Amino acid sequence: MCVPKRYSLKIAVFILVIGSIIFLKLLFANSGHHDQTCLPAPLPLPLGVHKPDATHFSSFSEAVQHRANANRSILMAYFDAGALNMTLNFYHSSLKPHGVTHFLLVSSSSRACAAVQAEGLACFLYMSDADSEKESVYMSKDFVRKMNIRTYMILEALKLGFNVLHTDVDVVYFTNPLTEVEKECPEKDCDLAPLWDSIVYNEGFVFIRSSPAGVRAFEDMKVIAETTNKDDQVALNTVIKRGHKYGLRFKKLPVTQYLSGKAFYEDTERVFGNSAPGCHNCKVAHNNWIVSIEAKVYRFREMLQWIHDGLDGYYTNPDRRYLTYLNAEPSNTKGSETRDMEVKALRNALAVSSLLNRTLILPRFHTKTGVQCSLLNHLRLTEFDRAYRGEYRESTFLDHHLVPKHIKESISKFVTIATDDAPDKSVYVPRDTKNGATSDEILAWFSGRNEAVLRFSTLYNAFSRFSDRRTQMRFQEKFDSVDLKGNYRQYI
């Protein structure tokens, strides 16, 4: 076929363009999907300088590189979905107030990691784990397995040449601990420095240098994790005992400055933040020696160490109304009788607060010896919180700095419902002073009260029943499900 000259040039150009496109496609196809060698490598940021988007990272090494300080040290905290709120509180109560910026949150829960990233916090999803989407029972198989993930991430960071301060999220800082532990464990004579946990060394707060001995210690811990059913704390204490064989230089952190939950809360009777003794030497306190997330959160709140407000405005809601009451000092009663009386009063308070659509602010309770205590000593917090979550607040609630001023200034005078035990203290006299008021009487007396906080002097024997039988049955079944005797450490 004869092609006119005026078209031959256009055809030649078209063929040349198509050929070039095919050649380029073949070139990039043969180069491999991840091969970026034809592109200049991005220059790494200097150590201690965070990249602009410091919440998402393409690799663990990139995350550690960009979050470590100039000394190649980094604070790392592992958490799962069950500890999400605890992690957010850890940031607001400890990291942010003390200017701790060289930290990396590490998770095996994609949901939890995304949640903290949404708050603008640096998080790396180290691995995906189905059990990490929920809270695990203390020392269960999945709990132990998740705890051993911490060993893997620490070892990887050490092998990358970074020193690691590993911390749990159920801790309170009184200073920036990263700068402090670097001084406590100097490079010239220290490889590993853990917190003493009253009877063992605690993996929940430990500084490790990326020295040969530090790396070797965590290599041994990895072997223990993979060949036994022991958790990382047992593994840590094992390598401390035998680390001298390969020259592990070990130093215990000062016990008066780095404290376990037993030393900080229990031994010194720190129960209520508005009356607890100070701790001027404290640098770190671990909220351990107590079982369950619910119990730890409640203890933090009573000590005014919980800052996370949550989506529901736990502290800051301006429209929520409250009810509170007092437990009288026990007199001439046995320890078990005191507990029974105070639990019955709690039952009455929950009933009255639900009737009046108010949130209950708990009172202080009393131990068998008459010492003031929190609800931990009477009930198991896990069951209580699951049944009444959102319906109650800690006794120190009104002392929290986030509670609006107008709530604190709108508190009623003490109100008393007359009973056989207190017949002459109030105009609120039920028909049955022996068993207490009915729901109809409570509503008639108090539903119109406008104070933000309605305050009762006592609720012993003050409420008898709901007028509606089905409502009474549902309420009693719910309360009976949580009336399980507890102890301070919440051990079952």
From TrEMBL:
Keyword set includes Membrane: yes
InterPro entries linked: Nucl-diP-sugar_transferase, UDP-D-xylose:L-fucose_XylT
Superkingdom of the source species: Eukaryota
Domain Nucleotide-diphospho-sugar transferase: 99-300
Record field: transmembrane: 7-28
Keyword Repressor: no
Keywords: Membrane, Transmembrane, Transmembrane helix
One term of GO molecular function: glycosyltransferase activity
GO CC annotation: Golgi apparatus
Alphabetized PANTHER family for the sequence: UDP-D-XYLOSE:L-FUCOSE ALPHA-1,3-D-XYLOSYLTRANSFERASE-RELATED
Name assigned to this protein: Nucleotide-diphospho-sugar transferase domain-containing protein
